[in-house]
């Protein structure tokens, strides 16, 4: 990875969830996987869908739709698992589709937006406007809680 | 000379030698007349002296040298072994240990040892008056045979003669066309062992077993049978050409000259001597110790073994995957190859796991000395019995288990064993016994510390626990005996009326409990007041690869560790009984409660019209339960994986594993299911 990007921009992974685009900083993302078999783990919170075998590592999976209280949808060909890591906790996030890797200038990120729509805004660190696209920046800390 | 690169080796080896010295000194104390043991100690001391001098630790070398002088005097019968001398020698070994520990923690190994050195010198110079413990005739007749015996062997031969045995040299010629020489040698040895004791052979036994000899070899035998009988018996072994039996007459004491003349021979004899323990030995013992001589070892950093283990775990997962692919494809050559690979990786697994296994001896061997010291400090008489020191445990467990055991042994000696007078008054022998016992059972290793002391006074424990607020009055009524005993493991507990230096501060036993539990083990206490207590520790054998039974519940697969399975059964639904809202079955005369995995794990249910239940009977300690599943898949070796940091404390799931098809299966924690 080229570390030349000036501190004035942040590289993010953009992904789709229902009709909105979200983004996670690229340094928190390990990989993006196609959907694979998920083993249900009984007795966990509903948004934890289970665990997968990620190249020999058992990795827990969170469904972001149910995490955010959005409508459940059947998984399809575009469904992806984003493997994200915070400290030494690795978790896979199920999203509707992974779109892009983008550089977002820091000055394009606005702090807390006034109106966010249906989902709880506690997971959001900011909103970035990039041309016509609106990207919602997410906080892994809050999602993992 | 830059010696840094050798420092680690030096420390390791010094510790080994010190340990060997300790062991042999303890042996010597029990058997003061045994010059063989003194030789062993001397050898260790000598090596240590050489090593430390090379490494530049003068103090260490100096003290070892002084000690060596004393040992030498004992060896040459100038000094008799007395308790006082042993004490001084022991404390000098203690000093040596302290120095080595200092070096290993980065110090320079210096220590004020003048006092002990003076004492050693006193012994060396002063007390040379007592007669040697082993009196030996000084025979002077020259020997007929061409065999040379070292000092120790001569002693054995002479002592046996005094007891009415005869010593023969049996020369055996095998036929030139003999095919299985090693087998013949074995048969001959077996015949000879039946007649008496074999104390020496030329060439040495290991050479004979490797067939590294021509048709001829000689065996020295101590027996009561006449020479002709031996000759006849040996001749009965097939492919033996010729046997001659010569009586060994008095041995000359000119051994040393001969030894100098033939250094190579001497070397061999040293080897033999090393193997041959004081009492005349049996053949199988010789074989066992032979390994000690011929085995070559290297030191490997434990981290490298861990890496190897991790790589191997990945291989195991891929092996599982290959197995399922090949069974799908049903290609015969592929099947063969995969089967072969499975077998090899199975062997590999055993080897890797074994490499990490260390006998508990490495922990146990420091206890005899500790007990010796404690008996003197406490003025008690205690005999430590060690059983099963060869039991092997994973290295990581071994490293952790030492301190808890020290605590428990101290506890047994301080609180368990009574003062000699009290013991006699109770009609016991004055000497108490502490038994340290290790053994395998299933996937676990058990270590028991048993004493024949006072046992645990339940009332006293309860009163104390109430005093300290560890239990409440209501709880007391519901406690079982075992639970009461286990209160002494609670933190802040101590029943000893007087706090001694050793134990009784109530900080020891709760640490023991937490350490053992952190290793995935458990500790239980049994006690009979007046006749002693048993502390029993259960530890897992290995930590990463386990055998499981795979079962299916609807579409989900679960793994149940074989270690907790008793057996599987298929039961008709109408045989299930109801007791207090709990479904039970009658299993071999016992009432076993049923647990439905689909309910426990809330598996999405479909209709089933099955008339039978498939049941896995599992146990936790004495208790049993039947887990109801849909079907059994089979037994598998799997790699235990954690669920990661995110999912912690999932009920009744102890981890996960990856199956051959790449899917994750959860491992059921039976201990959580049985209350």
TrEMBL record, chain A:
CDD domains: CheW (cd00732)
Domain CheW-like: 9-145
GO cellular component: cytosol
GO BP terms, alphabetized: chemotaxis; signal transduction
Residues of the signal peptide: none
SMART domains documented for this protein: CheW
Pfam families named in the record: CheW (PF01584)
Entry coiled-coil feature ranges: none
Gene3D superfamilies: CheA-289, Domain 4, SH3 Domains
Domain of life: Bacteria
Record-linked PROSITE patterns: CHEW
PANTHER family: CHEMOTAXIS PROTEIN CHEW, CHEMOTAXIS SENSOR HISTIDINE KINASE-RELATED
Protein name: Chemotaxis protein CheW
Species, as recorded: Domibacillus mangrovi
TrEMBL record, chain B:
GO molecular function: ATP binding; phosphorelay sensor kinase activity
UniProt keyword annotations, A-Z: ATP-binding, Chemotaxis, Kinase, Nucleotide-binding, Phosphoprotein, Transferase, Two-component regulatory system
Segments forming domain CheW-like: 545-675
Domain HPt, chain residue ranges per copy: 1-103
Enzyme class, first EC level, given as a word: transferase
Record SMART domains: CheW, H-kinase_dim, HATPase_c, HPT
Record PROSITE patterns: CHEW (PS50851), HIS_KIN (PS50109), HPT (PS50894)
Any single biological process term in GO: chemotaxis
Top-level taxonomic group: Bacteria
EC numbers, comma separated: 2.7.13.3
Kinase listed as a keyword: yes
One GO CC term on file: cytoplasm
Domain spans labelled Histidine kinase: 293-543
Keyword Transferase belongs to the record: yes
Positions where Phosphohistidine occurs in the chain: 46
Reaction catalysed by this enzyme: ATP + protein L-histidine = ADP + protein N-phospho-L-histidine
Protein name: Chemotaxis protein CheA
């Amino acid at each position: 990875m080229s570390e030349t990007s000036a501190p004035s921009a942040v590289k993010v992974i953009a992904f789709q969830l229902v009709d909105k685009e979200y983004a996670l900083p690229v340094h928190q993302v390990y990989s993006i996987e196609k959907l694979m078999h998920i083993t249900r783990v009984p007795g966990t919170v509903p948004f934890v869908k289970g665990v997968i075998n990620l190249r020999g590592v058992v990795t827990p999976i969170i469904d972001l739709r149910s995490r955010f209280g959005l409508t459940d949808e059947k998984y399809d060909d575009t469904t992806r698992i984003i493997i994200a890591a915070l400290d030494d906790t690795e978790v896979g996030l199920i999203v509707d589709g992974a779109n892009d890797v983008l550089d977002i200038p820091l000055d394009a990120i606005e702090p807390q937006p006034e109106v966010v729509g249906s989902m709880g805004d506690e997971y959001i660190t900011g909103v970035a406007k990039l041309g016509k696209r609106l990207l919602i920046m997410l906080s892994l800390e809050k999602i993992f809680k | 000379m830059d010696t840094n690169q050798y420092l680690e080796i030096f420390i390791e080896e010094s510790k080994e030698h010190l340990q060997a010295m300790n062991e042999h000194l303890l042996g010597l104390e029990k058997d003061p007349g045994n010059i063989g043991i003194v030789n062993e100690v001397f050898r260790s001391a000598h090596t240590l002296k050489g090593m430390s001098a090379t490494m530049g630790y003068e103090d260490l070398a100096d003290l070892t040298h002084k000690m060596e002088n004393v040992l030498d005097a004992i060896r040459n019968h100038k000094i008799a072994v007395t308790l006082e001398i042993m004490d001084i020698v022991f404390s000098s070994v203690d000093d040596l240990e302290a120095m080595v520990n200092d070096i290993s923690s980065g110090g320079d190994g210096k220590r004020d040892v003048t006092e002990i050195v003076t004492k050693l010198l006193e012994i060396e110079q002063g007390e040379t008056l007592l007669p040697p413990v082993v009196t030996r005739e000084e025979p002077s007749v020259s020997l007929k045979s061409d065999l040379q015996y070292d000092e120790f062997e001569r002693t054995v031969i002479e002592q046996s003669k005094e007891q009415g045995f005869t010593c023969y040299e049996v020369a055996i010629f095998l036929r030139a066309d003999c095919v299985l020489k090693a087998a013949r040698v074995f048969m001959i040895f077996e015949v000879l062992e039946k007649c008496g004791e074999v104390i020496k052979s030329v060439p040495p036994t290991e050479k004979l077993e490797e067939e590294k000899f021509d048709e001829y070899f000689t065996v020295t035998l101590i027996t009561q049978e006449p020479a002709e009988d031996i000759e006849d018996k040996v001749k009965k072994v097939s492919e033996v050409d010729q046997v001659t039996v010569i009586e060994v007459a008095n041995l000359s004491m000119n051994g040393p000259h001969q030894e100098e003349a033939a250094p190579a021979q001497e070397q061999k004899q040293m080897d033999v001597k090393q193997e041959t323990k004081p009492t005349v030995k049996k053949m199988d013992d010789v074989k066992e110790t032979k390994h000690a001589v011929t085995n070559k070892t290297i030191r490997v950093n434990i981290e490298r073994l861990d890496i190897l283990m991790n790589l191997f775990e990945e291989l195991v997962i891929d092996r599982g995957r290959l197995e399922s692919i090949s069974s799908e494809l049903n290609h015969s050559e592929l099947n063969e190859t995969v089967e072969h690979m499975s077998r090899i990786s199975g062997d590999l697994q055993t080897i890797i796991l074994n490499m990490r296994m260390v006998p508990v001896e490495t922990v146990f061997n420091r206890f005899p000395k500790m007990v010796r010291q404690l008996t003197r400090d406490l003025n008690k008489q205690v005999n430590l019995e060690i059983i099963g020191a060869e039991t092997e445990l994973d290295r990581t467990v071994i490293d952790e288990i030492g301190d808890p055991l020290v605590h428990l042994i101290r506890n047994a000696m301080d609180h368990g064993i009574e003062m000699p007078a009290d013991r006699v008054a109770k009609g016991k022998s004055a000497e108490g016994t502490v038994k340290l016992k290790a053994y395998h059972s299933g996937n676990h290793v058990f270590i028991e510390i048993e004493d024949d002391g006072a046992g645990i006074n339940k009332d006293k424990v309860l009163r104390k626990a109430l005093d300290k607020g560890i239990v409440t009055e209501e709880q007391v009524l519901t406690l079982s005996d075992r639970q009461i005993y286990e209160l002494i493991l609670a933190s802040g507990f101590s029943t000893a009326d007087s706090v001694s230096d050793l134990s009784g501060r109530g900080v020891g036993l709760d640490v023991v409990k937490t350490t053992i539990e952190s290793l995935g083990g458990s500790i239980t206490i049994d006690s009979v007041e007046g006749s002693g207590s048993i502390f029993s520790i259960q530890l897992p054998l290995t930590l990463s690869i386990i055998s499981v039974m795979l079962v299916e519940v609807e579409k989900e697969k679960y793994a149940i560790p074989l270690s907790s399975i008793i057996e599987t059964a298929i039961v008709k639904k109408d045989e299930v009984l109801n007791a207090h809202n709990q479904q039970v079955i009658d299993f071999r005369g016992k009432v076993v409660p049923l647990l439905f995995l689909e309910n426990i794990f809330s598996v999405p249910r479909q209709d089933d019209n099955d008339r039978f239940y498939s049941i896995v009977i599992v146990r936790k300690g004495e208790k049993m339960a039947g887990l109801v599943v849909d079907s059994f898949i089979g037994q598998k070796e799997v790699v235990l994986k954690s669920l990661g940091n995110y999912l912690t404390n999932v009920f009744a799931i102890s981890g996960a594993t990856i199956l051959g098809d790449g899917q994750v299966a959860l491992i059921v924690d039976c201990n959580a299911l049985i209350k």
